[in-house]
Design a protein that fits this description.
Oligomer: single chain
Strand order of the largest sheet: 2-3-1-4-5-6
Helix content: 25-40%
CATH architecture: 2-Layer Sandwich
InterPro entries: Se/S_carrier-like
Protein name: DUF3343 domain-containing protein
Order of helices and strands: EHEEHEEE
Structural class: alpha+beta
Largest sheet: 6 strands, antiparallel
Number of strands: 6
Number of helices: 2
Amino acid sequence: MNNFYCVMTFHSTYHALNFEKVLKDLNYEVRLMPVPRQVSSSCGTAAEFPCEKKEEILKICLSNQIEMDNTYKIESQSKSNWFVKLINGKKE
């Protein structure tokens, strides 16, 4: 069985912290975490969020002027990890 989770990356830690505050104030389940290696080898902060809430969360980011980098859907498997990059609701 595959296990998916979604993460959003940001241009700065400030934007990640702002994202977390706004979404938690709206009772969304979000968790800050290091950027997964599947996404980037550089350091940084990402936010994990429920994949089924992606469209709602993107609208909230837009209305609250939260600057983000990209959104990713990451598949966790027992021995390997794969990810799908999501931009503007489209899979690449």
